[in-house]
Amino acid sequence: MNGHESPHGIISHYCEKNMTAVCKRLLQTHHFSTQYHIRDALIKEGFDDISQSTVSRLLAKLKIVKAPNVYGKRVYCVTETTKPTYTDSEIASQIEFVTHNKVVIVVKTHPGSAQLIARIIDLNPHQEILGTIAGNDTIMVAPCNIDRIRDCEQAICLSLGII
Q1: 34, 56, 121, 156: most buried by Cβ count inside 10 Å?
Q2: How far apart are CA 118 and CA 138, in angstroms?
Q3: What stretches of the chain show up as alpha helix (H) in DSSP?
Q4: What is the mean pLDDT of each run of 10 residues along the chain (163 residues)?
């Protein structure tokens, strides 16, 4: 028995809520292609003896889907209906810079990170942001009003934890 289970093997409510938050954070900051990899990451976070079936139930509860990433590999993704817990500093470390040309905001990322980061922007809707388009290492963000582009740029930076 570990610190997360009762004598009857049932995960406590507190532990389950914490595991849910940790799982959301992991899915926001990493690309997982299998439940086995998610299980390993949760074990590294301190959730000993977690089974694959528990991971499966957790993903269903969180409404996590599998979708192709920029390389066409199917990875687990947080959906629109799953609110993110918070942006980890690991996400901010994937961003090289954020700038604008008075018409559109550009977020330059490390290769392969743009779609995940655009997804985080999309999951944290803000009134200043009209939408995003992501490639491999570049995100273009359309502001709702180019006269308030600096407000839009600041909203993006706040949602990504870089200011």
Answers
A1: 156
A2: 9
A3: 13-29, 35-44, 52-61, 89-92, 114-123, 149-159
A4: 41 59 84 92 89 89 76 74 49 86 94 87 88 94 95 88 75
